[in-house]
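If you are new to this repository, start here. Below is one unmodified record pulled from the training split, so you can see the exact layout before writing a loader.
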Amino acid sequence: MAGRWLCAVVLIVCSAVGCANQVPVAENFSLSTQKKLRAPHHWDVIANDVVAETKRSLDYNDDLKGRPVFIESSQNGYSAFNAAFRNFVITGLVNSGILVTENPNDAVLIKYDTQVVRHGVDRKYSPLQSMVLVSRNLQENGRSEDYGSTWTYLTDGPTDSELIVNTSIVENGNYRMRKSDVYYVDGEDIRLFLPKAQQIPVRDLKVVGQ
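And here is the target side for that same chain:
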């Protein structure tokens, strides 16, 4: 009998030691969605979202309301997206009745920057995740809310490239508004978001006949 109790105590102690030394198990975040940039129209859509947030901030702060704004070019350098995004923001602000100036003196500064993030792992949806997302976003016309046809959404998930867009209102060196968004980017389109200095030049290879 005493031997059985001793074995039980030993097992309990070993189990406790094992639990104490066990490293935490990796756990995925809960299921979430993220939009993918597929066309310049999508650039306009996110620019309009920035315009709406900017207008709310300007209207909310009495010392900023009614003053002209200056849109600073991205400090990341020229890219097709950076140039188009700035123009979309200017157009949206002007159409919203906000005075936009090319003179930064005595104007409210609106600045934005972009960052491309590339991952080195496969980031495709599992079938279960795809079905859950499609079921949640499916509309009566058979198209998911943001991603086109259901079939396209099932077969075209996250990519290894993402774009971070930060937009700020800065006054006297202080941030008065800050907005950060993240989007997926197709790998083939990454050159549209990278400054020229970071792009890998494409060389034509000639086939020499033998």
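Two things worth knowing about this chain: Residues 125-155 have pLDDT under 50 and may be disordered. The longest helix spans residues 40-60.
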